[in-house]
Design brief:
- This protein has three helices and no strands.
- The chain is mainly alpha-helical and about 60 residues long.
Length: about 60
Amino acid sequence: MKILVKLVYRGVIGAVMLFAVNLAGGLFSFHLSFNIMSIFVAGFLGVPGVGLLTVLKYMLA
């Protein structure tokens, strides 16, 4: 039960970080998608995870 709560908490934090990036990125026509995988990566890895998603978006686009 404790692990599930921690996972949900990190997922919420990841979603908030993605929202903040999308809010600031709106000024530069940049956005990251909100899906389960991106929220999990952002929540599990934190700020470096958001940076990883940003780099991957530019490399694969």
